[in-house]
Amino acid sequence: MTDDFGATVVKGGVAFKVWAPAAARVEIVILSPRAIVVPMNRTDDGVHSALAADVRPGARYKFRITGQEYPDPYSRYQPEGPHGPSMVIDPHAFVWHDTGWQGATLKGQVVYEMHIGAFTTDGTFDAAIERLDWLNSIGVTLIEIMPIAEFPGRFNWGYDGVDLFAPYHGYGDHEALKRFVDAAHQVGLAVILDVVYNHIGPSGNYLSAFSSSYLSTIHQNDWGLPFNVDGEGSRYVRQFLLDNACYWVREFHLDGLRLDATTNVPDSSAKHVLAELVENVRELARPKTIVIIAEDEQQQATRLLPQSRGGFDFDALWNDDLHHSIHVALTGRRDAYFHDYSGRAQEFVSSIKYGFLFQGQWYHWQRQPRGERASVPAAAHVAFIDNHDQVANSLRGQRAHQLSSPAKHRALTALVLLSPQTPMLFMGQEFAASTPFLFFADHDGDLLQGIIKGRAEFLRQFPQLASSSIAAMLDSPADAATFTRSKLNWKEAQAPQNQAAVDLHRDLLRLRREDTVIREQDSRRIDGAVLSESAFVVRWFGETTDRLLLVNLGADLVLHPGPEPLLAPSQSCVWSSLFSSAHTRYGGNGIEFPETDSGWMIPSETAILLREQPLLSVSNEGAA
After folding, report:
1. Selected catalytic residue, list 194, 260, 296, 320
2. Based on the domain organization, do 237 and 324 belong to the same domain?
3. What would you measure as the largest C-alpha separation in the chain, in angstroms?
4. Each residue of 116-146: pLDDT tens digit?
5. Residue 242 DSSP SS3
6. pTM for this one?
7. 52 and 132, same structural domain?
8. Does 605 qualify as catalytic in the annotation?
């Protein structure tokens, strides 16, 4: 790992360094505060460097190659966007207040995915700071920021970033992200950043001007050509990605990374670039600990293993299997990539016990096996009802609670937030936000038309969206109104009609945090059983007392008797109520204790959590 490419503030000026192997001559063009041109020295491997004396932080510059000027591939800040000049930044100028912060570990985390531009009306890091106390009060512990690398235009999801070291200038000045992370640490919240190493954006990307070796000539992926990390000329490309990952943790005090679409990062090297990346970042962060979460569409669980066992040492993977089961249960639809899921009780019991549902079995939708078998902690699976992709992968960007009955959504919310897996909320989920999350990207011309066509083709896999006129029905990604409609309306967080959702999430996360049995997240001490096609039971076996979660996604279920051993309390104990999603506090119709003298009656579309209580204490309470 290095940290000296780009512009580095040194005594007497600024040292510049760039890799441009095909260029015989590279010059630094200082544009402001005064115009200077500085020739650079070239090494045999194409690295150009020079010291620009008397240049200070704030100066704007470009590199000149064969008469054309380009921004710095390692630029820390692009104040005028990806086509404009880069700015010299002193990374040590910011005064941090988090010296006591020890980083983050995976166990016990509650993740909150946010898009900075859509999280608030202003869409800036500073505006987001104002909501940190809210997130802390809900029970969130770790913020996952969607990608922020500089992109063209006024708005973008972030996955089209082109200046990988420069936080998007529209979210604030060059220290805005630092202020956000510093403030988050002050209230006890960790922050990780979603980074994209599987491709680079199509507009505003000038890497090819420096070297034709940046993109692979031997691999392809879902977005075209990936970065060249294993072919001819790959040494400095590989270093570029490794430096980038370390940069975010070193300079912005981030508590880890979320790696986007890791299946689409091909590498035939002896050590995969992602494994090397994780190793480098963990070493850099010491003695602090960091969290590495990956989105891996094939759910390659072996990547969660330590490198000594052939893995990449990821901490967690997104659990799409569980999401897909939840979606089918909520909506009743099994089209497109939901095809291989039934939403039945068996899938939920299996997910709670084993994490991923597919661990090498045949997957009909992709006509190939899916997943891998690996023994990993339950916390290594990130569980969610909504995320940015799944909300937007619809015609109108609707959230799960808008596609389901409220009672069923409450029941499955309880399952996700109490499960041993690591739960993740998508921004606004905690107050049942009515705002959609649409696909937005401020492109124009042929690129925009290609994106619209691609979105329409993707959505046609859903039969109800297979019409040839679907493209005309989609909100234009480049329309400012599409972006504006996707912004959270924070008045809803305080609206009376939304308090039931807020209370539900807050109470469940308090239970998760404070209950000594549930917070262990130990799937080895959990068992489950199917009670019907739509109902199941999950039991936590504690050191002294157990917990029992009953979930019924169908009609009222009467068990007279209840021939399931997990329903039986331990000797000299009885069950008492700890939580019910049917409580009027959460918008339900009221609580009914599920155990009767002759068996069990589990109300429809309800989750009920019970705890064991010794008979002696019950008798004493009765006597009192």
Report:
1. 260
2. yes
3. 92
4. 999 999 999 999 999 999 999 999 999 999 9
5. helix
6. 0.96
7. no
8. no
